[in-house]
């Protein structure tokens, strides 16, 4: 049989090894039907196979197995998808794909992977969608019309449904495999019924109550907010003030000491002067020392440690004298003072003790407005001091803010000029006013300031269940571990959860109210309401007349109306654990969800599930996405990057066209470009998105395709029967090592480490070493090697990261590798399901690789010197002479017959340079590494002539080398 190598001009292209007598194609090399860049029109069919088809296959094939459940933290059904969505959903998808392959790291294991259950969900209620619904009902002149709850709910439902479909389409384009047919929405009737039953269970346990108390209130949204719905702005600007309240009476124990003092005042400091009309007490601390100073004809009570600051701030141009010093705060209790803002309705108000008072700021005396402060409310309620909040839903003063002349304050916004007007009324009792920059809560939806305001709201008793909730976290794995203390701190700091919202678009709180406005919330009444919703639909809660008797349980007597408050959306999504069967294996969301969904899920689960464990076994958090300058992405700044821009390559510099006839080269690499970016990020911290990182990943993805193209075109079935060389064994050993490293990284959810390991292996071990050394054998030798092993290993490692690429490569596999069985697909097969074919020990392999790398590096250094002087072009023009230590020589002997192939030179000898003293040129380099002692490498001209077939310099002049002569001639 004679062989000939020639270019193939057929449509498939490539280089062929053919039998010249029969014209039979023996070894097709470098098939070009797998393109270096994907054809975008072909991508949907590959996407279908690696998403829906794969999910359905594993669901059916492994139906009897215990599932791995990744529970979806529902994205909000409002607006287009952004880069944060991509990071979140792709990380989840990678986890699922890893589990499909999962079989541990046993080299002989051949067990099937896990059955994964991933059912996507959407959070559909809430203010932003309702605001959009309201905007749709505005007339052209901006006035609101037909703002009834029924219309709002109808439009909001339509908006949410459209957003869900749009987002679902985007998720699927990213290669997210999931049970899309069972995707749930918080506005689904079945979800709402389950949510109401969780509420019922909590109410039955006495964990739900209604109370008039201060809550975070958003004037811009006109609703109460929970802590999780706040954003804190560090540079909020307020007008702080020092105000003197006139003291009206002293307890007997102080009358002798203070009785002779005229015009005695208590100085307080506030950053919210608008709360002064609601002042009902002043707090001191029992253990602090206080003093009385005189300025002109007035006397002032202030903490001793704050005296210097108060004198500087309040009396900068006046002299002051200390009249009474070192009075314990405990002796001041019982003092009564006058709040001028209450006018004729004013009654004596007390000075009391509060633990939170300190001498770190202000005057050491704290103004208490129990209607506008959580701490104020707690300390005042214990003493029977009632809360007042003369502020309406829009954040404006009511008539009761200044009863003597309601028109002065009524209607003024407390967040704009209301506070200034209050200070004007107080006149000379205001000792100082100045601008104060501080941290302040904002509505996370409208990005506008909130206030604290007492209203009638529904609350969940978190304090009763939080200890158990925290204990359940003991068995949870946190990634990163810092998430544990963060979540625990949020749980620990909560005692109550404001659950009610004053909105129409949501799940109603199932409460009835009697003729006196007293709420009814019994197990029987809630059960009846849930049953009625099942029969009539949830919208009937709003469409029925207020007194419709169908909603009233049989045991209730009298007339009742339905409440219109809806549940906090965090309660909606927080009860989504009802969508899973048992404890979820993984929750994964952004780090902001420690105070959001993670917390609400844990608290509702601890309250109503009856289980002592958490709803999740592993809790993973990722950071925020930033631009390449480290700034948070914002539409207003203009630094937002859309996922589609990464997929279509539009963010990358244009590719230069070399041929005039060629059209522009598309930079689009599709979903895999987006996925590789997400996988390569250390998501445990904030993630940077910009041209440098995208360009790096773009280059890596093109390298994957180039390597795959070469593997597809070079591997053939006959290689399976060809004996392994030492080079093959090294390649297999390196393949095993990188697969173990990648699998370990994947199992630890450190995908970026897996990507780094793949890239390093491709660049160092595969591309620059094995494939380079294999070219001669593929083109001119027996065509053997372990390319099939490498192809399958690479496919398995890339399958969770770039599934579309793997599917495309698998579709282009040679016919002899093709099979109709899905379980043979790399995405379905365990990482290690084939025997390890290396006979040498790991220690011996490491020694061999260490030797080869060290010597090869020295050879390349010497060759570069020869190239710099234009003495050599191809590395095959060189021979290598080694001067080795005894330790190195023992390794050399084992590898000697393949070193020329490994170094891609014509020959390698271990002898003294003196034997080559007549060479035309020589270049020397030292072998680095203390392990080998001092060893030298010389690169010299090749000894023989160039073989016209294989191009090695090992042949007589104008003749084939011995190997090629044997191959070409009839065997």
TrEMBL record:
Major localization class: mitochondrion
Top EC category: ligase
The EC number(s) this enzyme carries: 6.1.1.5
Catalyzed reaction equations: tRNA(Ile) + L-isoleucine + ATP = L-isoleucyl-tRNA(Ile) + AMP + diphosphate
SUPFAM superfamilies: Anticodon-binding domain of a subclass of class I aminoacyl-tRNA synthetases, Nucleotidylyl transferase, ValRS/IleRS/LeuRS editing domain
Cellular component per GO, a single term: mitochondrion
Domain Methionyl/Valyl/Leucyl/Isoleucyl-tRNA synthetase anticodon-binding: 728-881
GO biological process, one term: mitochondrial translation
Keywords per UniProt: Aminoacyl-tRNA synthetase, ATP-binding, Ligase, Nucleotide-binding, Protein biosynthesis, Transferase
Domain of life of the native organism: Eukaryota
InterPro entries associated with the record: aa-tRNA-synth_I_CS (IPR001412), aa-tRNA-synth_Ia (IPR002300), Anticodon_Ile_BEm (IPR033708), Ile-tRNA-ligase (IPR002301), Ile-tRNA_ligase (IPR050081), M/V/L/I-tRNA-synth_anticd-bd (IPR013155), Rossmann-like_a/b/a_fold (IPR014729), tRNAsynth_Ia_anticodon-bd (IPR009080)
Subcellular location field: Mitochondrion
Family named by the database record: Belongs to the class-I aminoacyl-tRNA synthetase family.
Protein name per the record: Isoleucine--tRNA ligase, mitochondrial
Organism taxonomic ancestry: Eukaryota, Fungi, Dikarya, Ascomycota, Pezizomycotina
């Amino acid at each position: 049989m004679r062989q000939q190598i020639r270019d193939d001009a057929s449509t498939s292209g490539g280089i062929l090894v053919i039998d010249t007598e029969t014209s039979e194609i023996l070894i097709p090399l470098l098939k070009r039907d797998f393109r270096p860049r994907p054809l975008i029109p072909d991508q949907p069919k590959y996407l279908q196979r690696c998403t829906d088809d794969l999910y359905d296959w594993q669901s059916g094939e492994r139906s009897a197995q215990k599932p791995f459940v990744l529970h979806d933290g529902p994205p909000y059904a409002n607006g287009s998808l952004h880069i944060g969505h991509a990071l979140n959903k792709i990380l989840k998808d990678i986890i699922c794909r890893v589990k499909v392959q999962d079989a541990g790291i046993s080299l002989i294991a051949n067990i099937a992977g896990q059955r994964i259950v991933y059912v996507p969900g959407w959070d559909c209620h809430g203010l932003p969608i309702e605001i959009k619904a309201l905007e749709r009902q505005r007339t052209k002149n901006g006035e609101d019309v037909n703002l009834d709850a029924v219309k709002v709910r109808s439009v909001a439902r339509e908006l949410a449904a459209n957003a869900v479909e749009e987002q679902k389409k985007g998720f699927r384009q990213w290669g997210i495999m999931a049970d899309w047919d069972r995707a749930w929405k918080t506005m689904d009737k079945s979800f709402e019924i389950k949510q109401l039953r969780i509420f019922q269970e909590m109410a039955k346990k006495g964990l739900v109550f209604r109370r008039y108390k201060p809550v975070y209130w958003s004037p811009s949204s006109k609703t109460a907010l929970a802590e999780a719905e706040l954003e804190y702005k560090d540079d909020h600007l307020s007008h702080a003030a020092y105000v003197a309240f006139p003291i009206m009476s002293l307890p007997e124990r102080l009358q002798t000491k203070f009785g002779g003092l005229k015009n005695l005042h208590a100085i307080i400091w506030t950053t919210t002067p608008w709360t002064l009309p609601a002042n009902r007490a002043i707090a001191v601390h029992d253990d602090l020392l206080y003093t009385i100073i005189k300025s002109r004809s007035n006397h002032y009570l202030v903490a001793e440690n704050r005296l210097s600051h108060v004198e500087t701030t309040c009396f900068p141009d006046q002299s002051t004298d200390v009249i009474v010093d070192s009075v314990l705060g405990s002796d001041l209790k019982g003092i009564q003072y006058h709040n001028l803002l209450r006018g004729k309705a004013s009654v004596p108000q007390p000075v009391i003790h509060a633990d939170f008072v300190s001498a770190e700021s202000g005057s050491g005396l704290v103004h208490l407005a129990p209607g506008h402060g959580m701490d104020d409310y707690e300390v005042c309620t214990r003493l029977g001091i009632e809360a007042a909040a003369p502020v309406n839903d829009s954040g404006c003063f009511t008539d009761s803010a200044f009863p003597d002349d309601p028109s002065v304050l009524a209607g003024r916004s407390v967040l704009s000029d209301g506070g200034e007007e209050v200070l004007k009324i107080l006149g000379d009792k205001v000792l100082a006013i100045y601008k104060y920059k501080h941290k302040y809560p904002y509505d996370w939806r409208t990005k506008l300031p909130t206030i604290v305001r007492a209203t009638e709201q529904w609350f969940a008793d978190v304090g009763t269940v939080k200890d158990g909730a925290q204990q359940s976290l003991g068995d949870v794995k946190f990634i990163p571990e810092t998430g544990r203390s963060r979540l625990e701190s949020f749980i620990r700091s909560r005692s109550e959860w404001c659950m009610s919202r004053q909105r129409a678009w949501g799940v109603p709180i199932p409460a009835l109210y009697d003729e006196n406005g007293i709420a009814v919330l019994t197990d029987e009444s809630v059960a009846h309401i849930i049953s009625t919703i099942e029969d009539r639909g949830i919208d009937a809660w709003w469409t029925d007349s207020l007194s419709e008797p169908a909603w009233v349980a049989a045991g209730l007597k009298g007339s009742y109306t339905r409440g219109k408050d809806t549940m906090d959306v965090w309660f909606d999504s927080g009860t989504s654990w009802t969508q899973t069967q048992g404890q979820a294996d993984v929750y994964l969301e952004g780090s902001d969800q420690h105070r959001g969904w993670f917390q609400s899920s844990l608290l509702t689960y601890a309250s109503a599930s009856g289980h002592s464990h958490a709803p999740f076994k592993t809790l993973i958090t990722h950071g925020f996405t930033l631009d390449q300058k480290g700034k948070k992405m914002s539409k207003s700044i203009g630094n937002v990057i859309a996922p589609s821009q990464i997929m279509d390559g539009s963010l990358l510099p244009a590719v230069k066209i070399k041929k005039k006839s060629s059209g522009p080269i598309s930079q689009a690499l599709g979903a895999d470009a987006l996925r590789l970016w997400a996988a390569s990020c250390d998501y445990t911290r904030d993630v940077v998105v910009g041209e440098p990182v995208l360009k790096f990943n773009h280059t890596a993805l093109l390298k994957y395709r180039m390597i795959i193209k070469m593997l597809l075109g070079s591997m053939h079935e006959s290689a399976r029967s060809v004996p392994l060389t030492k080079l093959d064994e090294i390649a297999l050993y390196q393949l095993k090592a990188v697969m173990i490293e990648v699998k370990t990284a994947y199992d630890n959810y450190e995908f970026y480490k897996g990507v780094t390991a793949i890239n390093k292996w491709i660049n160092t071990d595969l591309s620059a070493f094995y494939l380079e050394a294999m070219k001669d054998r593929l083109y001119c030798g027996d065509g053997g090697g372990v390319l099939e092993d490498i192809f399958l290993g690479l496919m398995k490692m890339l399958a969770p990261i770039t599934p579309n690429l793997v599917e495309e490569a698998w579709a282009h596999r040679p016919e002899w590798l093709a099979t109709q069985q899905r379980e043979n697909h790399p995405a379905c097969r365990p990482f290690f399901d084939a025997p390890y074919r290396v006979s040498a020990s790991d220690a011996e392999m490491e020694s061999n690789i260490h030797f080869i790398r060290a010597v090869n590096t020295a050879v390349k250094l010497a060759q570069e010197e020869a190239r710099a002087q234009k003495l050599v072009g191809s590395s095959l023009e060189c021979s290598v002479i080694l001067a080795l230590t005894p330790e190195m020589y023992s390794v050399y002997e084992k590898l000697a017959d393949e070193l020329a192939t490994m170094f891609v030179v014509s020959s390698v000898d271990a002898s003294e340079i003196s034997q080559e003293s007549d060479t035309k040129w020589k270049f020397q380099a030292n072998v680095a590494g203390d392990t080998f002692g001092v060893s030298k490498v010389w690169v010299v001209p090749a000894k023989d002539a160039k073989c016209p077939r294989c191009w090695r310099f090992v042949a007589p002049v104008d003749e084939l080398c011995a190997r090629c002569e044997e191959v070409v001639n009839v065997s």
